[in-house]
Amino acid sequence: MLVTASPIGKQHLYAVDKLTELLVLAMSGRARIRVQGSFAASDDSEPEPDVSVLPLGAYLDDHPKAAHLLIEVADSSLRFDRMDKLRLYAEAGVPECWIVNLVDDVIEVYRDPSGDAYAAHVDHGRGARLSLLAFPDVTLAVDDILPPRR
Known about the structure:
The strands form 2 sheets. The chain has a 6-stranded mixed sheet. A two-stranded antiparallel sheet has the order 7-8. The protein has a single domain, classed as tt1808, chain A, CATH 3.90.1570. Helix content is 24%, strand content 29%. It has helices at residues 10-27, 78-91, 142-145, and strands at 32-35, 51-54, 69-74, 96-101, 106-114, 117-124, 129-131, 139-141. By secondary structure, it is α+β, with helices and mostly antiparallel strands. It is built from 3 helices and 8 strands, in the order H-E-E-E-H-E-E-E-E-E-H.
């Protein structure tokens, strides 16, 4: 009997694909873009963010332990991403995390990790543009990331 994980939804895949495309084009030669790869958040936890913006490196021997930005795309996983994953990322000192919230049609931006939480949180809806904290010259339109409304 073959056992598989729940399939990733089409809207989730759309957002991951768009983020990958936009970030690879914008960050070429400046940062490594990784899709659904392990991040060494702690000695006993290696979550797999949907998209990671990492310092340049090959990462052949170890999973990355630092990131400029980690992004989760969330629909059914929204609560888990907000509670558990954000806590892990804050504890690991990741300076910026985004949750592409497909439920509420916004991108949640978390910055300024302090202990196991982020001190700053702002939601960005359609029509807004986001700048990356580590690369303020790189801006992305929320409308280019969220799936089109039906």
